[in-house]
Amino acid sequence: MIRLLIICLLLGFRCFAQMGVELPQPSLGLMDALQNTLEKQPGIQLQRQQLNLNRGILQAAAGQFDTLVSAGLMQNHLNNPLTTIQELQYAHQGLFTSSLASNTTTYTLNAQKLLRNGITIGPNLTLNRNTDNIATREGLNQAQLAFQVTLPVLRGRGRDAVDAQERSSESTVEASLRDVNQTIAQLLTTTAIQYWNVVAAERNLVIATDSENRGRNYVQDVQTLIDKDRVPRAEINQLIANLDGRTASRIAAEAQLVSAQQNLALAMGLPHDEITVLPKAADPLPDWSAKSDPELTSELIHNFVERALKDRADLIAANFRAQAARQLLPAARNQMLHQLNVSLSAGYNGLREGTDFGQSFTSTFNNVKGMNIIASVNWAFPVRNDAATGQFTQARAAAEQAQLTEADLMRNVASNVVTSMSTLAYDVTGLRKAREAVAYYRLALNDELDKFHLGLNSLVDVLTMEDRLTSALTTEVSAQLSYAVALENLRFATGTVIDANTPVHNLDKNTFLRPPFEWELQ
Fold this sequence. Notes:
Layout: H1 2-18, E1 27-28, H2 30-40, H3 42-62, E2 68-81, H4 84-92, E3 99-114, E4 120-132, E5 140-152, H5 159-162, H6 164-227, H7 235-268, E6 280-281, H8 298-311, H9 313-334, E7 339-353, H10 359-362, E8 371-380, H11 386-453, H12 459-494
Parallel strand pairs: 1-6
Antiparallel strand pairs: 2-3, 3-4, 4-5, 5-7, 7-8
Helix pairs in contact: 2-6, 3-6, 6-7, 6-9, 6-12, 8-11, 9-11, 11-12
């Protein structure tokens, strides 16, 4: 019984496979494609790692202001031979020895901190425990506690000179954050454009398939008339040729759809195991919703350009990089000065006798007699100072280069905004004309069909007009695709795809369906 059931199941699966049942094709919405880009696109991940790298550089630059604590322990045992006279002198005192055996234990504890104005401060503690076999047999414990301040007078003075690397690194991190957002905006724009290419390719395939089906119906209808001797047999040749041409167009449309789907998969950053799935686009192409065509005025173009110069992530990044380069200039200029430092140290000495090791530590607060004050002035300057001069030349050139790069980018951004606005306006007009052409070609085809039924024209005239209608439909799709691409390019050019100043982004679908700024109100 079980064997019979298995055979029946296998036969059922075989019949099901032979029926050629197709599973439903998965659909993909625009927001799904954009979200995939945010999560899976390697370009975004690479840029974020660059941001992490620059954050590490900033942390390293701030490390010079960390408090440095050091401690040390040194133990010495020395045997110094005595001269004959010294031996005799000590013998008269009742000390019979031929050498001075000494033991010295030294503890050091230091803390040092560089302030951002260039001043170095820190306490120093030194403990010495000395014993020998002659003079200090009872043990001598000495302590020295001091607080030292080193004040730079010329080189290394002031926050602009000392903290320049840290502040420049902070600006570089800010620039890197905008680089990430610029990359995100660019990749989202690319994904949106590739998504609209898939939508357009699907529509073109539908147009080509419908055209092929109508051509096949024409062939079947005329073949029926030929079989009834109502139409000459030669008429079929032109119809078959027309059908072959339409079939070729359909095949080309299928190939174009596959190519568009793969480009979309790459734009989304899908891994290799997901790139073979070819989803169907779920959203239609965006459309111009206003009744009138967009009007370009000097004031409108100026407003778009001004907002782009303020909102574009790459321009903000370029400004931060120019700022980072300028912040290094004072430090490089300061290194060309003489090194002149004034050091002040204030503290006291303590002393305690005894051989106990613990007395070394208590000597810090024992038998203190007064303050110790030490002052010193140190000066140094290389004769040629080529290193500092060369570094200043590099820093000045880097600052000027960053400023020129920012200015050049501003020019290109302004030009891209003007071009994108003009392109979108022209595409809206072109889309309206393409739709008018489709409407008139439909009327013209109906007229040709009426004439054909009345015997006033030939089938060639009908086929010619239908091919023109098919071409007009394809042109309409192309015009709407051009508008969609122009819309995304305008969003990118004006810096309104995402917020350039935030690390986390919540996508709004209307951003990719409507133009920015004033045109949103039309």
